[in-house]
Structure formats: C-alpha cells, structure tokens
C-alpha cells in the first residue's frame, strides 16, 4: 500500500455516494449515479478492474463526477487488477488520507487484516489476540528474501495488508467519516479495533464493504455503520 501526496477532491458540492464492492461489475453503479447530478463517488474496495478505472467510469467523469477509492483484498490479486486501479487512478486514492468532501472530513482505511502481519480479533471468541508480527512495512520487508519482493517493495500479496502503522497514521488525524474495506464490530466478522479508531478520531459514521451485506447499525459508542452489498450505491443523507 503506497502512500503519496495527492490533490484534494476538487468537488465540494453535489451528492456524496458510496459504492459497495464492484468485483468488476460497474453497471449498477453507473445506472445509480445517472439518477443524480454530478457529485463524488467513493468505492469501498474490491473494484476488480479488468480495464483502467478511468475507462470503466468514463460516463461519470465526462459529466463531472469526482471518484475516490480504497483498496480491497481482491485489488491486489493480480498485477493487472492492481495496475488498472492503483496505476491508472492514483489521484483517487483515499487510503490512509483525509479528504474534505462536501464539508465532511473523510478518511480511508484500505485493505484487510492478515495473520502473517496482524489479525486483531480472537478466534475462537474469547481467546487471546496474537500480537502483530510486523508493526510496519519496513519490518516485514526485513523478514523477506530478495525473491519475495515485487517492484522493489513488498510482494503483491501484502500490498493490501493492514499494518499497525496504518492505525498510527490515521489516529493522528481527525475525521467525520471512516471508509474501510474491513468491517467494524457491528458485523459478525468485524474488528473492534476499527470501532476504537473511529471513536478516537471523532468519526460519526463508518462505511464498509468486503462482506457484501447491506445493513445499517449503531455501535455502542453511538457511531453509525453502513455496510454495503455488491455494487450497492448508497447516498449519504444531507
């Protein structure tokens, strides 16, 4: 997961829409967006692009939509899915950043937890949680052999991995909405550490994908949660 400075989202007016994991099927997203004036669309991961994202969403771009995205686990499955997203649309990357959109500060937590690095959930429930195997990417890189690297960095299979350093980075920021691929504890396969991150940063809403389930919930802390189904489009109420 590379982090580089990018320009802020230029659009500050219009609707703010979130789209669940497309897995290559952008048709429902295009149809839904066609019913709104141009605004901002945020993809919550697993785009599964078989072509460059700007080409797939050309009808939106042509009428003035701004598009932001975070990585899902399937976006690092192959070099082509990676290049068609990360390489083709770097200006839209919301991962580990905060963008001000429509007056809201929106942060992105890309990727998924993996036992090889960090899996902060007990399995079975109530069992001790294993400590992180690597706090940051540099620590993991030091454990790898030269044949395990990809493009002079971490292997592709770990470009979508969540590290504790990602939480450190986001905890230093303040935001209103957290967009994550992984779910918070409102989902049966979610993680309480995401709840804690959102609370520490002042978030009032978490929007996530990954599990392809459409639901709304509220955490004990009062933070609202919206889970999105496959290619589901949800408008943030004004």
What does this structure look like?
There is one protein chain. The N terminus is likely disordered. It contains 7 helices and 10 strands. The longest helix has 9 residues. The chain has 238 residues and is an alpha/beta fold. The strands form 2 sheets. A 6-stranded mixed β-sheet has the order 4-5-6-7-9-8, with helices on one face. A 4-stranded mixed β-sheet has the order 3-2-1-10, covered by helices on one side. The two termini are 32 Å apart.
- The CATH topology name reads Purple Acid Phosphatase, chain A, domain 2
Mean pLDDT: 93
Rg, Å, rounded: 17 Å
Helix content bin = 10-25%
Beta-strand fraction estimate: 15-25%
CATH class: Alpha Beta
Helical stretch tally = 7
Unreliable residue runs: 1-12
Distance between the termini: 32 Å
Structural class: alpha/beta
Tell me, briefly, the overall form: globular
Number of strands: 10
The domain tally reads 1
Strand order of the largest sheet: 4-5-6-7-9-8
User: How is the main sheet built?
Assistant: 6 strands, mixed
Give the gist of this structure:
With 238 residues, the chain is α/β, with parallel strands linked by helices. It has helices at 27-33, 53-56, 58-62, 79-87, 137-143, 164-171, 192-200; strands at residues 16-19, 40-43, 66-69, 98-101, 104-109, 177-180, 205-208, 215-218, 224-227, 233-235.
Essential attributes:
single chain, 238 residues, alpha/beta, Purple Acid Phosphatase, chain A, domain 2, 6-stranded mixed sheet, 4-stranded mixed sheet, 7 helices, 10 strands, globular, disordered N terminus
